[in-house]
Amino acid sequence: MGQYGMVIDLNKCIGCQTCTVACKVLWTNNEGQEHMYWRNVETRPGRGYPKDWEKHGGGWKPNYKGDKRKPPLGEVDPGLKEGTIPDAEAYGGAPTYDYRKGLFEGKLFDKEAGKVTVPPEGLYLDWGANWDEDVGEGDTPDDNYYFYLPRLCNHCTDPACVASCPRHAIYKREEDGIVLIDQTRCDGYRFCVAECPYGKIYFNQLRYKSEKCIFCFPRVEKGVPPACAMQCPGRAMIVGDVHDKNGSIYKLVNKYKVALPLHPEYGTKPNVFYIPPLSPYKIKEDGSLSKERRIPIEYLGSLFGGVEAVKHALDVLEREMEKYRKGEKSELIEILTGTQRDYFQLIHSKGIAYGQLYQRKGMLHLTKEEIKEMDKFISQPELPEAPK
Ligand code: SF4
Ligand code: SF4
Ligand code: SF4
User: Fold this and answer.
1) Strand 123-124 and strand 115-118: pairing?
2) pLDDT for residue 350 is more than 50
3) What is the CA radius of gyration of the chain?
4) pLDDT of amino acid 117
5) Are 59 and 160 in contact (CB under 8 A)?
6) Pocket of ligand 1 (CB under 6 A)
7) C-alpha to C-alpha distance for 221 and 176, rounded to whole angstroms
8) Comparing 160-174, 221-235, 265-279, which segment has the lowest mean pLDDT?
9) pTM (two decimals)
10) Distance 14 CA to ligand 2 centre (A)
11) Of 38, 32, 133, the residue nearest 88 (C-alpha)
């Protein structure tokens, strides 16, 4: 079985939200989807999106030894930990900004309430998908810190969403491990919304169906990378088959152990991995640099499977960076900077895939014919028809 996955290098993410917008305009730009960001980028430390998603429960009970396969039709797997459905406020809604009032009449600020108001009258804007952007923690300028955490469905190996659906509407594709919701079978029970511990299934009130990231399957089937990864100006993502021993993801996760899953304790075995962020050292009272990094290792450990795993990842990164600076060869740094293998190793690619072409020639040295060839892969694939 193939399994698509992604490594996101948090040292490269600049929080620009290009990936968020790429996904939004491609897949969730319709009525009923206003609150949905299949892809979102949240600032950490922060409450995330949906708000406080880490407190909503779901996933597998610790030490559950069941087979984590689909329960019989009409049942929910008994090994699942109870989860809750985030309320509308946790998503932040989708208020309409009145440009006329805001920009030309100065009427959006309610002096009495000390808040910005948005139509309809009386609705106060006090939470949104990226509300706590760049807030972080610590004291400026000595030890303040924050970093960005891009998130999407992890296309988990043991997906709690699949095990929670009594209609068998959610399934994992054999050929590439992508987790999808059969819209014709979904009856809107929302067990999956409660059971995905990552808050990555959204409910469409208008269609009365659950919806989620589809790993851009119509694109990857044609050898085109997922939109979020493709549009990232920081080239923060590597996409490929997590089981391919010659692939970059396998090496980052298993050989160098620098790419770690988010909250592995939820038990779903995510296939999106993160390279934890390095950060500047704290400044001591005498103005010199201490040996302690600004982002507390305990905090990173609470996200990425424990302090030891994070410490190992950061040590390896630092060691390999130092080697590379001295002019020595480092396979790890070559993977991370895209000089050794390209960022998109798509198992569906046939013939000359876009990524390989990009890698072989470099963007600035393409002939007209090659640009034409590349355009075929970049052009928007036809969208599947929405099920009735
Ligand atoms: Fe921007 Fe890339 Fe980070 Fe998304 S992952 S916010 S596109 S830098
Ligand atoms: Fe399912 Fe959530 Fe895992 Fe995605 S992240 S496969 S929605 S359990
Ligand atoms: Fe959105 Fe595609 Fe990225 Fe999933 S893989 S978050 S559907 S752009």
Assistant:
1) antiparallel
2) no
3) 22
4) 64
5) yes
6) 13-19, 41, 148, 150, 232, 234, 236
7) 10
8) 221-235
9) 0.87
10) 25
11) 32
